[in-house]
User: Fold this.
Amino acid sequence: MNGTSVVVGGGVGGLCAALALRRRGERVILLEARDTFGGLAGGFVAQGRWHDGGPYILLDLPGLRWAFERLGLVLDEQLELLLLEEPYRVQREGVPDVVIRHSLDQTVDGLQAAFPGSGEAYRAFVRDVTERYDRLAPLQRSTFAGPMGLLGGGRWRDARFLLRGLGPVLRSTGLPEPIVDALGIWTHIADQPLDAAPAPMALVPAIVHGIGAYTVRGGLGRIVDALVAACERAGVELRPGSKVDRIVRDGDAVLGVEVGERRIAADRVVSDAPGISTLTELVRPGPEEPVAERLRALPLQSPGVAAYLHADIDADVPFLRFRLVDDGPCRVLLSPGAVDDLRRGTARLVAPVSHTWAERVGESGTDAFLDGLLMERWWHSGVHGVEVVARRVPREWGRAFHLYRDSMNPTMTASFMRKGRLPHRTDVARNLFQCGSSTHPGQWVSFCAISGVLAAEQALPG
Ligand SMILES: Cc1cc2nc3c(=O)[nH]c(=O)nc-3n(C[C@H](O)[C@H](O)[C@H](O)COP(=O)(O)OP(=O)(O)OC[C@H]3O[C@@H](n4cnc5c(N)ncnc54)[C@H](O)[C@@H]3O)c2cc1C
Assistant:
């Protein structure tokens, strides 16, 4: 044995970090505040049916495969992946639906019919982003290496692309606005303006038409199940119901953590608790450490509002039906039963909200907003006999998952991404590391898994 590692938080990032450290011969104690593991990527059973709480789509299967491989797991043996033939469609009053399919030819034909002249421009755009994706994807699986690392490996060709925001990149295609909006849907659903979002979000169509977008039979919660089972097999000491109150430091060294009155000694600590909470609350920085102020100023992303539904859903209701409106955030109806026999009759209505707005209007304001969404008519088409079985507004997400100011971590803006996010190796203590969504250029499950592996490799090289 090398020593003892403590991992704080058992989200996807923490589970992967724990497993990676254990595989390096460490004694590993994983402390999770909740009674169950998985954090935002977990779910729940309501009236006998499984609901994923947060994530619903895998847009980066290669990244998740990479992380599993690094953990000695074969993803395709652990999970039954379902390719989404029609990952999503986007509706807006007064314009034709934009339908994005896995098949590029079918997508081009559909776009050409709905927006004459757009088909070949779309094909050219996908060709361009596919070439870029091949060059840039390795960056997602490495720790931030500064601007020079960014531009190595022939990536100097992408310098201009990387320096622009998503909006200019998408608009330079000359595609009509409804298609631009549909391509930027992953930022709309994060309530982020296209111009502030990082350009690499434009690479998503390369994935959708290439390797494909996926869900998991039975729900994305199966990813968590697979990781927890692997941790158990490997001998990670899993301790649910253990909220870390403090990471104990002496000078530039972490000595361990405190859970209530109890101190647990550690040679190194990897935190999957929200990045800002770790560096501002858990390590309790002194006034001479200005890090806290800089972090507190970062813009935050809200988990939004969600209503989890049971209903009879017609066969032609797509997996994801987005709705863009002029006077509010994007909404989406998720219907996993469209592709997954184990989740028939379940659905979810989701909308992002701005973090600032949610803090201002409080729980009652976001509750009222969700009530309004449930009254809207657009999502009822093809959906009958609706029963709301659970609901979540930002305050509830925050309480349930110990989020920093009810946020999913700092918003991944273009400038935050270029600066390198929060590093895995903290500068407050030489043996304190971080993983999870705030340490990676995106909040996807795959990114959090990668971040856990990379944080462990930094914590215990070789
Ligand atoms: C509504 C929604 C939709 C999403 N959709 C998608 C999607 O479609 N596709 C996708 O890939 N991703 C999606 N995501 C993002 C993804 O789910 C998250 O980014 C990811 O699960 C975060 O993992 P994490 O390890 O960073 O942290 P978390 O999941 O936040 O886990 C951190 C864990 O640490 C624990 N913790 C915190 N503080 C302490 C403490 N002091 N002591 C002990 N434990 C502590 C928490 O209880 C939690 O379990 C979505 C998220 C949401 C909310």
Q: What stands out?
A: The radius of gyration is 22 Å. Residues 8-14, 31-34, 39-41, 54-57, 243-244, 272-273, 303-304, 401-402, 408, 436-437, 443-445, 448 surround flavin-adenine dinucleotide (CB under 6 Å). Residues 355-375 form the longest helix (21 residues). The chain has 18 helices and 19 strands.
